[in-house]
Automatic annotation (TrEMBL), chains A, B:
Protein origin, superkingdom: Bacteria
Protein name (Swiss-Prot/TrEMBL): TetR/AcrR family transcriptional regulator
Residues annotated to bind DNA: 27-46
Protein's organism: Streptomyces durmitorensis
Keywords: DNA-binding, Transcription, Transcription regulation
Residue span(s) of domain HTH tetR-type: 4-64
InterPro entries linked: DesT_TetR_C, Homeodomain-like_sf, HTH-type_TetR-like_transc_reg, HTH_TetR, Tet_transcr_reg_TetR-rel_C_sf
Record Pfam families: TetR_C_46 (PF21943), TetR_N (PF00440)
């Protein structure tokens, strides 16, 4: 079996065990066992528990970002065919992709969202880069929507940044809610957030703010 | 100095050091030093690092929940004088209280939001109770707003639960954003979320959903 394939099997096993046991409690013995390889081979390929965890974070962060981008642009390799869609349709596609991906890979979501952020460096920095990339992507979607609506006054750049943070935080929270309740589908979670966010963002785009 | 006062000084020091160094890296020596007491006295009063951390979580969780409730009900000891206010004003008051409190106690927010949730049990359970209490409180506000609006169809209980999760997650995300950028005031963070959430929730209350 080629090394690249073996490594992916090790990473699959590691994401599962890290996600279920936590970084510190996870044992390299169990990871090797689940991957169906010897522990020395895991060390030979991935060097250390720390490097293995870092590799898990990188792979899963890249997979999540790719899934969301592919959702927005109309599928893997779709080459951005949905680029001409209105911003709300792009957001809806992105949310569906996000909740589908996190529902399909609950252990990976736990590794990224719950574990990596708080195990100190270098892990926190790895996942912070991913979160910033997603916030920047959402920021560009919101800014584009504001330009489309082009009512005055345009949303300030600073407020767009805040709205993107709110949207990403809401999505993170709902992913945990949906993954913790088997009766909540990815589509339902996406629809809940779309209604919460868009009807709200939609009003903002039209220059209608909530006033006390 | 009475024991109760000394204990609060120790907790003040512990929240600061745990917040800045992380649970594992924090040293009892530094905590005792910052509190201006001997290390044996910290152990005499709080028993262990684990119990000290648990006491920090409990105190800060109770303080945060109390601040939000007081904001909504019109101040500490206000006895719910704002109970008659429309739901949007109650939410606005609650958000201002939340962002003011988390801005004033950034180390406490890091302990509750970033550290306690991921250091395993018993800490995760302590902070999960607080989060559930806040989600339940927000759920009741949203349900009340829906009853006020009483347009048909009423929001389903399940969707209200999802909206509350979205709102709490958005608030958590914005607290981190605001605390990480000194130029973002508590009031600005609250206003950003209020516009995001209420204009959106407001449309939902009127039965106007986003449709693809």
């Amino acid at each position: 079996m080629p090394r690249a394939v073996r490594e992916q099997q090790m990473l699959d096993a590691a994401v599962r065990i890290f996600g279920q046991r936590g970084y510190r409690a996870a044992s390299m013995d169990e990871i090797a066992d689940v991957a169906g390889v010897s522990k020395p081979l895991v060390y030979l390929y991935l060097n250390s528990k720390e490097e293995l965890f870092t590799a898990c974070i990188r792979r899963e962060a890249a997979a999540l970002v790719a899934a969301v981008r592919a959702g927005v642009s109309g599928g893997e390799g779709g080459g951005g065919v949905r680029g001409g869609l209105p911003a709300d349709r792009q957001l809806w596609a992105g949310l569906q992709a996000f909740f589908t991906h996190t529902a399909e890979r609950p252990d990976a979501w736990v590794v990224l969202h719950n574990q990596a952020r708080t195990q100190g460096e270098p892990f926190a920095a790895e996942v912070a880069v991913m979160r910033e990339e997603i916030v920047a992507f959402v920021t560009s979607l919101i800014a584009e929507a504001a330009r489309e609506a082009h009512r005055k006054p345009e949303l300030a750049e600073r407020e767009v940044a805040g709205l993107a943070q709110a949207l990403v935080g809401a999505a993170e929270s709902l992913a945990g809610w949906a993954n913790g309740d088997a009766s909540v589908s990815a589509k339902e979670a996406a629809a809940t957030l779309m209604n919460f966010a868009w009807a709200g963002l939609g009003e903002l785009m039209e220059g209608r703010r909530w006033v006390p």
